[in-house]
Amino acid sequence: MDNDGALAVRTGVVTRRDLLFALPAAGWAQDVEFLCPMDPEVRSKGPGRCPRCGMRLEAGLPDPLEYRVELATLPDRPTAGRTTMLSFRVLDPRSGKPVVVFNEIHEKLFHLFVVSEDLTFFAHEHPERQADGSFQLPIVLPLEGMYRVLADFYPRGGTPQLIAKSLLVGAGPKVSVPAPPANMGITLRLEPAQPIVGQRTMLFFDLSPAEGLQPWLGSWGHLLMASEDLLDMVHVHPKWEYQPEVAPTVQFNVIFPRPGRYRLWVQMQRKGLVNTKWFDVTARSL
Ligand SMILES: [Zn+2]
Ligand SMILES: [Zn+2]
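Above: the input record for the complex with zinc ion. Below: its predicted structure, written as tokens.
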């Protein structure tokens, strides 16, 4: 496969399921003993870690099913500039009952991305698990308007999930959003220079300096890629085998699903500080 699993992390599990169906059927099940839950086409005869994302390989995976996520806010109608409590409840699609046990992905039970409609607000947070199995996050959303929230979690007995929800925020007091702290420069090169829809695009992030780069949340970097209309959101990681002392460049492989403009937020940690930087990229059809 030359797409390097980029499709496996598109919103929802539909594409993950498609990907599983796309695997060669004959002789596959008998040969495969251990799979990566994030990159199901990564398989091995023995236990170990996925060379792509560093997750532990598992013996067999359940059928991919999309879990339901209920998002509640307090107050009911969030106001810009004031603290809103977000609560997430995950329901098992088979029983309709709340899920209370989750597997860790990248050192956390629940990852959440929040992006404003105009793409100027970005947050990568980790809601806290409550006694009833729900997850909560207090957050200040600075702008009025629509937001997309992308929940990334792995219910026990299921497969890793990426579920997007919308959130409407009403007008409120103006608050300033400080620029994210940074202690390294990050520039982006693409190959091909203009991405083609449906084909692999290699993203090379050149770091200056790269010395002192550290894994953060079990990965050398985290990338959220969102289409301008926020309908497609992809969460991608570079190869786990990356060696910062060998090359000052971290490579991610992605596939742009539709033509148009995308915003990419990349997050990498150097000397204890998480650097967040965004880039705009336009993909064209062949
Ligand atoms: Zn996270
Ligand atoms: Zn990540």
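Notes for the reader.
The helical segments are 14-22, 28-31.
The CA atoms of residues 263 and 280 lie 5 Å apart.
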